[in-house]
User: Fold this.
Amino acid sequence: MVSKNIEQEQPPVGQITLPGVLHALSDPVRLEIVLKLAVAGEIACGCFGLAMPKSSLSHHFKVLRSSGVVASKRDGRKWVNSLRKEDLDGLFPGILDSVIAAGHAMRAEEAGRK
Amino acid sequence: MVSKNIEQEQPPVGQITLPGVLHALSDPVRLEIVLKLAVAGEIACGCFGLAMPKSSLSHHFKVLRSSGVVASKRDGRKWVNSLRKEDLDGLFPGILDSVIAAGHAMRAEEAGRK
DNA sequence: CGTATTGTTCGAAAGGTATCGAACTGTTCG
DNA sequence: CGAACAGTTCGATACCTTTCGAACAATACG
Assistant:
């Protein structure tokens, strides 16, 4: 039996909902995660520069997975996370791209205002 | 003094945040309100076919206003609500349009599945 | 096998959110 | 003025979220 639970958490395309996705993206920590994934493609959970306990990060990844935004797969002893970009683009064209673009702009502006 | 409180609730463009907007849109009731506003342009609070008490509706409008998604103005004894489309498009290009399009597609699919 | 690594799960505390009924404010109209 | 209307505000309840530490599982490596 291979990593049973996590795969079940990730819904098929037909079960992804618009409010669910928007809710997942509406948390600053999760938005940050999505922005990094958008740039890096695939990252393990621990490789974010976020100052949080592992359990908090794990919670946010669970929300991202169960809403259908992020896919996670085992690779050795890490988990490799990636955006479900094709699924989301097929369901809600343009949303992911515009949120990512706005999120990056937001971060750039925050950095400039420091 | 003219309708003092409500205007203060509506933030200037500089105070609208991406997580705030996404959170406002992530509730099914509020998403429904936004979709109707997108079609109708301007609607009074009571003119939604939503089966809810006035106080619940009022709460959702408050969230929509304080996140910067909706503007409300007095007109006689009604309130006229409208989307802050230009402000949102300026801040987060494409997000509102893609959410509205996805929301309408979602509703159409729900109707077809009845 | 034992240990380190990576992340999950559990339980609890603190705060936020949705929902509702009842009371209230501001506006129009007779 | 007084009644009707449109929506807000208040208080209460129930639920959901975020956050954290501690304990647990799965994998890799010596």
Remarks:
- The first strand of chain A starts at residue 42 and ends at 44.
- Chain A is about 55% helix and 15% strand.
